[in-house]
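Suppose you are handed only these lines of text.
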Amino acid sequence: MDTLATRIKLNNGTSIPILGYGTYKIKDAADAYSSVKKALDLGYRHIDTAAFYENEKYVSNAIKDFIAEGKATREDIFVTSKVWKTELGYDKTLAAFEKTMDEMQLDYLDLYLVHWPSSYAFDDDWKNTNRNTWKAMMEIYKSGQVKAIGVSNFLPHHLETIIDMDVIPAVDQIEVNPGFLQKETVDYCHEKGILVEAWSPLGRGKSLEHPLLQELASKYGKSVAQIILRWEIQHDILPLPKSVTPSRIVENSEVFDFELSSDDMTAIDEIPPYGNSGHGPDEA
Ligand code: A2P
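From them, the structure of the protein bound to adenosine-2'-5'-diphosphate can be written out as follows.
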């Protein structure tokens, strides 16, 4: 049976644990530290942060303390951060990465992502901005300070601006929740060998109220959150649930001991838009 430590291969040969712990909106220093520490204690081995979350330092302190306590090695833990959308372009991306490394004080990151693409909607030179950002990302990758590079919130037309460059993104982290599968982007990524990660996999909690999902939870004897995470995993999407509640952190990790039938997968696929955020990459 898979566990939180089970890894899958990325397109550059690096491997990544199949479910991660998201830290968006956990800004408070003590909360960020204690919830990451809790997640690690409960077996999570994949932690996702970003410069924008303003918690890189506390997240990283929790990881370093966990390692110092002899509970894991650095290699056991997969750490992601991201460059924010005000820092796009070659020079700014390099500088943003240095700032992240200063904050986190780790020898290397496992994954560094471009948090949002540049878009025609707010940048006349958006294609070149994406290419220049990606040029900096490739340089960071080639320096050995990150094991893999990728993007976030890129739709196929954004990916097309960089897909011909030397390094293909290993990951695209996009919003996925019931009613918002983003199938076109998922299919594009899977065709190109790009792993899709899901942010807001539970629709910020809203998806938990959906009647069909509640019905399926009773049918499988699982929680609604577990049904949703399982649906994402069976779509080969890597979910990054976040919670500061210890019992929920545990609950969200117990998704490897059951399987949704293909009829139930289809029924969830057909849920109309429900709990998605409404934030897209082509809005200023
Ligand atoms: P909390 O952090 O208070 O436990 P998403 O990952 O889609 O952004 O959703 C995060 C939200 O969902 C948070 O408000 C979190 O609350 C809540 N949440 C996370 N896991 C669960 C769960 N297993 N059951 C109910 N609510 C959850």
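What can we learn from it? The radius of gyration is 18 Å. The chain has one domain: 7-269.
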